[in-house]
Amino acid sequence: MNDDPIVYLNGDFLPSSQAKVSVLDRGFIYGDGVYEVIPVYHRAPFRMPHHLKRLQQSLNGIRLANPMDDEAWDALVRDLIARQPFDDQSVYLQVTRGAAKRDHAFPKGVAPTVFMMSNPLVLPTRDQVEFGVPVVSADDNRWLRCDLKTTSLLGNVLMRQRAADVGAVECVMFRDGHLTEASASNVLIVRGGTIVAPPKDNQILPGITYDATHEFAREAGMPMEVRPVSRDEAISADEMWLSSSTKEVLAVSTLDGKPIGGGGPGPMFRRMYQAFQNHKPAAARRG
Ligand code: PDD
């Protein structure tokens, strides 16, 4: 493993150890920035246009001009990918409001900071796919713009640590008695043969993988509903899945120590997982 990979910072590709950002960067001081994580299979980014569209939505949401058009982003991401010694990658990119004297209000005439790195894509293990993963639950106490992929992730960090503290993989959250999402994934359930997913409103991140599951479900003729999911429905679901760019789809085995459905991946999960794997080579060819 290369421990000093090539990263991108403000126009330059350079070894990670040499990439430096000002201590006054608003990403550091305020978490004033947005980010994306793009999975890469066999050096081809998966659903890049979707990620760039969401990046634009996040930038609009924090009133920060996009420093590049999609073509330039696409070229830079591909350049970064080509500079890594491994095929399956996870590209992380972030844009912050740049370095300026500390003042909450936006600075004027300051260039944004653009940073990108790519790590090996670490997908769930065979055992996790085969047997599902334990999760814990918590009341969602994050802010009400969870639809923006901002670098201000302390709420999510604290939730994820609750899971890590007890050896669980994720923390599934509920707000006002309804399922929202997990600390770094979307959550879908299955009841009576129908996939049920919470609506993409301000309370959850509009996941690219969440959208992919909808498309794959439609293609495979798997019934799907988008509507609020109560805590009771979630806890007593036949199946519960996590979805994210680095987890793909992953079944939940237990929630707070109690089995979900049969306590492992169910038949609908297996179909969706297969659909996902079937789509990867074609998507990788398309880039
Ligand atoms: N997280 N919800 C939250 C809060 C997330 O952080 C993520 C992704 C998702 C799933 O979105 P997508 O399918 O587009 O990856 C939902 C990324 C992987 C991360 O922060 O590392």
Distance between the termini: 25 Å
Shape: globular
Say how many strands there are: 15
Helix-strand sequence: EEHEEHHEEHEHEEEEHEHEEEH
Largest sheet: 9 strands, mixed
Rg estimate, integer Å: 19 Å
Q: Could you estimate the helical fraction of the residues in percent?
A: 25-40%
Question: Counting H and I runs of at least 4 residues, what is the number of helices?
Answer: 8
Whole-number mean pLDDT = 97
Q: What are the segments in which pLDDT stays under 50 over at least 5 consecutive residues?
A: none
Proportion in β-strands:
25-35%
Bound molecules: N-(5'-phosphopyridoxyl)-D-alanine
Short synopsis of the structure:
The chain is of the alpha+beta class and 287 residues long. It has 8 helices and 15 strands.
Keywords:
alpha+beta, 6-stranded antiparallel beta sheet, single chain, about 290 residues, binds N-(5'-phosphopyridoxyl)-D-alanine, 9-stranded mixed beta sheet
What does this structure look like?
The protein is of the alpha+beta class and 287 residues long. The chain has helices at 26-30, 48-61, 70-82, 126-131, 154-165, 208-220, 231-235, 267-286; strands spanning 6-9, 12-15, 33-41, 44-45, 89-96, 113-120, 133-139, 170-175, 178-182, 186-191, 194-197, 224-226, 239-244, 248-255, 258-259. Strands 7, 8, 9, 10, 11, 12, 13, 14 and 15 form a nine-stranded mixed sheet that branches. A hairpin with a 2-residue loop joins strand 3 and strand 4. Helix 6 crosses helix 8. The longest helix has 20 residues, at 267-286. The protein is globular, with a radius of gyration of 19 Å. The two termini are 25 Å apart. The model has no long low-confidence stretch (mean pLDDT 97). Bound molecules: N-(5'-phosphopyridoxyl)-D-alanine.
